[in-house]
Design a protein that fits this description.
Blueprint: E1 12-14, E2 23-26, H1 31-41, H2 47-51, E3 55-58, H3 79-101, E4 110-113, E5 117-120, E6 123-126, E7 132-134, E8 139-142, H4 145-154, H5 159-177, H6 180-190, H7 193-222, H8 229-239, H9 242-250, H10 263-276
Parallel strand pairs: 1-4, 4-8
Antiparallel strand pairs: 2-3, 5-6, 7-8
Helix pairs in contact: 3-5, 5-7, 5-8, 6-7, 7-10, 8-10
Length: 290
Amino acid sequence: MRWEDGRRSENVEDRRGLPVSRKVMVGGGGIGVLLIALLGLFFGFDPGVIFQGGSSIQAPSAPQTQSPGHQPPAAVDDKSKHFVSVVLADTEDVWESVFSKAGRRYQPPKLVLFSQAAQSACGFAQSAMGPFYCPLDNKVYLDTSFFQEMRSRFGAQGDFAQAYVIAHEVGHHVQTLLGITQKVEERKRRAGPAEANNLSVRLELQADCLAGVWANQAHRTRQILEAGDIEEGLNAASAIGDDRIQKRTQGYIVPDAFTHGSSAQRVRWFRRGLESGDLGQCNTFNTNRL
């Protein structure tokens, strides 16, 4: 993937190494929180959607101070941060253009880099939860050590596979700006468990499709894709399908418990956005065949 010479986004918030104040979630503990953490470990989890209905209490914490001689993490300009900021800038350019053509204004999300743990408006997050988007503060949260987890645990190699992760989470931001996330949450509150899972799957598959739309349009503008990149992205989409994760973790597959979609479904919708570059092709809520 060609990214080194790309524009860097100014919307990256580097919290790596900073102390974290913790919020205690009320009404969402026990097995549910454990399940959330386990699902999040296998990528793309959006705890913000689940935690919207809970309340939180700010636990007392010490003031965030720097030790003498400590270099602020924001001053660190490593390769991972460079890569993330370029991909984020590409998503900004693409979605600003798409929204502008529709007569709307795109408000880009902030992307928070953190190490081990971070506080979001959706609750306390840890690295094990994987990357996620919080609709309550319009921020994407990412511990870049997850990229190593992708390579070692999922066999998802390459820069474009990593860019797909970022673009998928930005896709959730696009859904929030369009009001899709809010409508889905309203429907889920009235639905039974099976229907609620189905709605979650459709939301996630749409985010995969939106990631594909980004890649298509970014390549048209800046020729970011190189030989093998598309295969890397499709492999990443396949590696984190619910069926493969369930098979690996529990030895059997329960389709009614899917929250993100099967490997085949994730590949299908990512490819659909990638090949069309058309937001209109990403309506996962108006089809019987996912």
